[in-house]
Specification:
The chain is an alpha+beta fold. 49% of the residues lie in helices and 16% in strands. It starts with 15 loop residues before the first strand and ends in an 8-residue tail after the last helix.
């Protein structure tokens, strides 16, 4: 049995033969698990958020297209841009913020969750926001706030008084 040669791994697990793209060789299970740019905890959090919104993974249509903009040769040659569509609602998001396809997949799911949440809860929250704003506008100012406004008015009056031409002296 061969143990993991990476000290950073910290695990005494047997090595498995795995192919990870350009490099072929022996990798520890723990190292393979940490190869993704997004931690499993964050991926699970987004998956739970989508589930709470009623979005199933089967309802998502995911396409990969070539990105544009910064990123150099990687962006020009590899399809790193992620287009994610939720079929039942027709909601579509496109993410090409990062150079990594895996990170763009994660961010696209975050954006989709944000967009669907705004659609579902947006109308109710917008109305609540409008009502709260009206309530704040109509509310009477506190005594301290009234004093601050008066102090500002007096300070402004003194500044304006200094601009007046000097009068009463012999011309």
């Amino acid at each position: 049995m061969i143990l993991c040669p990476w000290v950073r791994c910290g695990l005494d697990r047997p090595l498995e033969r795995a192919y990870d793209g350009a490099l072929a060789g022996f990798r520890c299970n723990a190292v393979l698990r940490h190869m993704s740019p997004v931690s499993p905890v964050k991926q699970q959090a987004v998956a739970e958020r989508l589930r709470a919104l009623g979005v199933r993974e089967e309802d998502l249509e995911e396409r990969f297209v070539r990105s544009s903009g910064k990123g150099g040769q990687n962006v020009n040659k590899v399809a790193t841009c992620v287009v994610l569509q939720h079929r039942p609602t027709g909601t579509m998001v496109k993410c090409q913020q990062e150079r990594s396809q895996a990170l763009n997949r994660f961010r696209a799911r975050q954006l989709l969750a944000d967009k669907i949440e705004r659609q579902l809860r947006g109308a109710a929250s917008a109305e609540a926001h409008r009502i709260a704003q009206l309530r704040r506008q109509k509310r009477r100012r506190s005594r301290r706030a009234q004093e601050k406004v008066l102090e500002a008015k007096h300070a402004r009056a003194e500044t304006k008084a200094l601009r007046r031409p000097v009068s009463g002296e012999g011309d």
